[in-house]
Amino acid sequence: MQQQGGDAAVNVTANAAADAAAISAAAALLEAGRLVAFPTETVYGLGADAENPQAVAAIYAAKGRPQDHPVIVHVAPGADLDYWVSDVPEAARKLAAAFWPGPLTLILKRASHIPDAVSGGQDTVGVRCPSHPVAIALLRAFKGGKGGLAAPSANKFGNVSPTTAQHVRDEFGAEPLLAAVLDGGPSEVGIESTIVDLSRLATHGPVLLRPGHISAQQIADVIGQMPGLPDQSAPRASGTLESHYAPHTPVAMLAPGQLPATLAQLEALGRKVALIAYSAITGAGPRVRLPDEPVGYAYGLYAALRELDQSGADLILVEAPPHALPWLGVNDRLRRAAFGSSGIVERFLRA
Ligand code: TXA
Ligand code: MG
């Protein structure tokens, strides 16, 4: 664990059992109302005691996040869902049994004691039990395993989520509100959890609010019903804002057939173009080659976006992945990263 602000520095590795002292120090900081960043299998989280409104307020302050965006409550394996949720549907118990600990967040009717700051003023709460060993050790140590950690991704609002402890330090530097960063190595999934809304089952059925590593089909296989896509009245999720998870450098996606010619044209015009590709494309600028399958691609995506964002490129070109269901989570994150830059390639080619 790295204590910020000059306190004792201790290193926590993915081997949580070997770092019991650092884990209990982090749990004590959280119990005292401080913020601690910790690894999960999806991305790193910026954690606070979910039942301490001041601690949750500090998350919003550190992230620069609007007050009405709810945060997910992370719980230990075997936690009592009925403590956090007012009316647990059978589908939620089945999904928790099938996928927890793991990268699935359930949106459910909240129990009355959950602070407004956690639920963003809505009548629901997002709950998830992460599978990363350091996250599990922390949740077991915190309040004796009976607490919940409110934790959004540990990045400034709208930025790319962190998948390493170094990414978290890059985001928050000397932020005084952040008491410690637990280092558990790179997050193995690499994109945020799948979110399924079960809070309006009777009227709307299950709804997929954010695609991720656990697919709609896997959810359907467990509950016997395919989750629908969100409608206007679905609970708000900041991860569902069109522009989100975006680097500062403009991002554009191009079909594999178009990419080499466009890249050559942009480079001929003197543009410094960074490239994320899964096939062998050559160019002059910095590039990251990601695997041509969605699991490995998701694992490397955010680190690639961060690295190329630091490269001084005018543009990050992304070879568009296939429009196939296994790529849904990756395509969703790429679309959001590129959202604010629509038309950028055409503008560069005209200029
Ligand atoms: O994988 C993840 O889910 C990571 C790790 C740290 O667990 N967390 C994460 O948190 O991505 P965050 O806050 O960056 O994104 C969570 C999303 C947000 O879009 C938030 O609006 C939505 O979940 N959310 C949380 N509680 C909700 C609720 N009660 N109703 C609807 N959406 C909710
Ligand atoms: Mg986030």
From TrEMBL:
Function: Required for the formation of a threonylcarbamoyl group on adenosine at position 37 (t(6)A37) in tRNAs that read codons beginning with adenine.
Binding positions for ATP per the UniProt entry: R65, T124, S153, S161, R210, Y245
Taxonomy of the source species: Bacteria, Pseudomonadati, Pseudomonadota, Betaproteobacteria, Burkholderiales
Reaction catalysis annotation: L-threonine + hydrogencarbonate + ATP = L-threonylcarbamoyladenylate + diphosphate + H2O
GO-annotated molecular function: ATP binding; double-stranded RNA binding; L-threonylcarbamoyladenylate synthase; tRNA binding
SUPFAM superfamilies on file: YrdC/RibB
UniProt keyword list: ATP-binding, Cytoplasm, Nucleotide-binding, Nucleotidyltransferase, Transferase, tRNA processing
A cellular component annotation (GO) from this entry: cytoplasm
Subcellular location: Cytoplasm
GO biological process, one term: regulation of translational fidelity
Binding annotation for L-threonine: T42, H74, R128, A151, S193
UniProt entry tagged with the keyword Cytoplasm: yes
Protein name: Threonylcarbamoyl-AMP synthase
Pfam families (alphabetical): Sua5_C, Sua5_yciO_yrdC
Origin: domain of life: Bacteria
EC number from the UniProt entry: 2.7.7.87
Family, similarity comment: Belongs to the SUA5 family.
Domain YrdC-like residues, every copy: 20-214
